[in-house]
Amino acid sequence: LPGDSSQALHHFRICLNMCPMALCSQFGTHLHVSLTDVHSLSCNLIIRSPTKAEPLWYEGQCSMDGIDFLSSNNVNKTMPLGNQEKMANATEVWTCLTQWIDRWKQELRDKVSEIKVHTTKTSGHPTLRVTMLSKHSHEQIIGASWEFNTSENYSFILDLKTMKWKLINPVPGDIMKEWKDDETLMKHLNLSIAECSKKFNEFLNQHEERTSRAPDITQPPPTSQVPYKEVLIPVGLIISIIFIIFICICVKRMCCTQGGEEQRGVSSCPW
User: Fold this and answer.
1) Strand partners, 145
2) What is residue 202's three-state secondary structure?
3) All structural domains of the chain with their residue ranges
4) Where does this protein have coiled-coil stretches (predicted)?
5) What is the pLDDT along the chain (271 residues), one digit of tens a residue?
């Protein structure tokens, strides 16, 4: 595995073990978390035991904040979903998940084949349903887990904060213990969330920066007083001049009228 992947896993484990209430960050132990601003990255996978009659043995779908943006299966490979213009900036998240899905589906397909041997409740070819979930707030992972369900009758969860497995619906056979003892599987389950969560945090930061720089279309643009002053001052002067001229004309007429009455034919008006 590349060096940066190992480093991401190292920070991921330290944070999950040290931060109280699972408030952790891949870049340190920043505890200023706002629970009102939580984002999620999740993937739901369905894996069946492969047969000759049914070539489709894997299906998967991933979402960010509940919005599906990635779909994949072993026949049509990986396909983007949703608004591609909006998802264009999530390319690194998309790439990270795609690479890890290729590993998950191969490893988990082998596990599905083993399940058929161990469990007697499963009739026919078993189906494995897997849910990967990580929750984030301000560059911090506040929770991460893997949930596994085999043919609707055997469920268990891997909590990456405590690194413990928990049975939900146990059946005879110690399938969970075998998975727990699989070091390669455990490493990949941890590292995949560590890597893709880092890309997801970077995407959230970029989205927040773009949003903060974009103008708020709900607010009216600020009005400038300078143009109004430039217009109002000349208009005021013109109105004042017109008013003065009007007063002068009225006074002149009144003066001339009175002078005419006193001395006919001789204007006593000073103008």
Assistant:
1) 133, 159
2) helix
3) 3-213, 231-271
4) none
5) 444 555 554 544 544 444 433 334 333 333 344 445 899 999 999 998 777 778 889 999 999 999 898 999 988 877 767 666 666 667 889 899 999 998 988 899 888 887 755 554 555 668 899 999 999 988 888 999 999 998 777 889 999 988 899 988 876 567 888 888 999 999 999 999 999 999 999 998 887 777 666 555 555 555 555 555 565 677 777 888 888 888 888 877 777 666 655 555 544 444 4
Give 156's contacts (C-beta < 8 A, 6+ positions apart).
147, 148, 165, 166, 167, 168, 170, 175, 176
From 195, 207, 205, select the one nearest 93 (Cα to Cα). 195
CA distance 212 to 206: 10
Alpha-carbon span 148 to 170, nearest angstrom = 12
Q: What is the DSSP string of 99-142?
A: HHHHHHHHHHHHHHHHHHHH-SS--SS-EEEEEEEEEEETTEEE
Q: Which residues pair with 43 in a beta bridge?
A: 62, 132
Residues in the chain: 271
